[in-house]
Amino acid sequence: MTDFDYAAIDEILASRVRLAIIAFLAGAKTADFAAVRDATKTTDGNASIHLRRLEDAGYIAMQKRFVARKPQTLYSLTERGRRALLDYVAHLETLLPPADGEAGRDGNR
Amino acid sequence: MTKDQAREDIAFIRRAIEDGAAYATARSPDLLVWGIAVAIGYFGTYAFIRGWSPLAPGALWAACIGLPWLFSLRRLAKRLVGSAVATRGPVAQAMAMLWFGCGIFFMTMGIAVNATGQARYGWWNAVVAGVMGIGFFASASLTRLAWLRWVAIAWWAGELALFALRHRLEALPLAAALMLLLLAGPGYVLMSRYARRAEA
Fold first, then answer.
1. Is residue B184 part of a domain?
2. Which of A59, B55, B68, B163 has a Cα-to-Cα distance from B86 of 20 to 30 A?
């Protein structure tokens, strides 16, 4: 038995695509829509829906700009989103023995 | 949720963070800046020897090496003045250290080669090309951009050409062309690759 609490799982990050987006942005700092879509191996529509959900939750911030007269949408992780990812990983680690927990923490960097 | 699932999820998150770091690293304009600056150094030296330019190679190289260093170290400068800088993931850190190490090697050996008069024998340009090949070969793996391996192979082919031409003045414009094509070129492709992709 562990002290893992299912109810404490962040509902927003329960989706694999949204989790991937948050983790990708944690490493990228800022990324455009196409990069996020490619990284999560999803479609335009699906990526848009999940990005909107994350934005509504305040986990990511969106910024629009023009590059060579073409619109470009940039996404970045907010402090709230970064905190949510760290909490999610910490929550997963409660399921693992202490020795495994060390390896898991590396993923937070 | 089981322990295996938790491990799998943590590994998944780690991979995604590293993908993000690799994406951020690949967008860096450093390759473009260094490629253009070093090419100017080679072309300028060639022009001076040919009598086309009055600018002495010593001052030219000081500018062509010093200014890109300032550009590449801007992140460190930002950190020192307290500006926000993204935390690097392990992949981005490995990439940065790889090229930082190459840069230190180029600078220290470049000074030694020039100070001892070995520069006139021309072998140093081939060494630079060989190390560039190593840098791109490792970068291809770190950034998961397979085409960078071809850039590495092209650098190694250039290394052989530069070695063959080591006693000839034509090695200088060849080295400049390699810097533009195989350093500034990939830098431009990596930067524009992301800028071009507008939202569908």
1. yes
2. B68
Average of per-residue pLDDT values in chain B: 84
Both tokens of B148, joined, read 């960078």
Tell me if B158 sits within 8 A of B178, measured CB to CB: yes
Is the pTM higher than 0.90? The answer reads: no
Give the residue numbers spanning the domain of B139: 3-194
Q: Does residue B28 carry a pLDDT above 60?
A: yes
Classify residue B138 as exposed, middle or buried by CB count within 10 Å of its CB (0-12, 13-18, 19+): middle
Instruction: Say yes or no for a CB contact (<8 Å) between B196 and A68.
Output: yes
Task: Give yes or no for A90 touching B (CB within 8 A).
Answer: no
Work out the minimum CA distance from A48 to partner chain B, whole angstroms.
11
Q: Which residue has the higher pLDDT, A70 or B62?
A: B62
DSSP lists the bridge partners of residue A63 as A74
Beta carbons of B19 and A24 less than 8 Å apart: yes
For residues B172 and A45, the answer to whether their CB atoms sit within 8 Å is no
Q: Between chains, do A71 and B198 touch, taking CB under 8 Å as contact?
A: yes
Please identify among residues 45-64 of chain A the ones whose CB lies closer than 8 Å to any CB of chain B. none
ipTM of this predicted complex?
A: 0.74
Which residue ranges make up each domain of chain A?
A: 11-95
Query: In Å, how far are B43, B64, B68, B89, B197 from B36, measured between CA atoms?
Result: 10, 9, 9, 28, 25
Fold for A11-95, please state it: Arc Repressor Mutant, subunit A (1.10.10)
Nearest CA in chain B to A64: B199
| Region B145-160 average pLDDT | 94
pLDDT at A105: 47
Return the amino acid letter for A63: Q
- Whose CA is closest to B136, among B151, B121, B122, B116? B151
The pLDDT of residue A70 is above 50: yes
Nearest to A72 among B2, B16, B198 (CB): B198
The structural domain count of chain B equals 1
Chain B: give the shortest CA distance to residue A97, in Å. Answer: 9
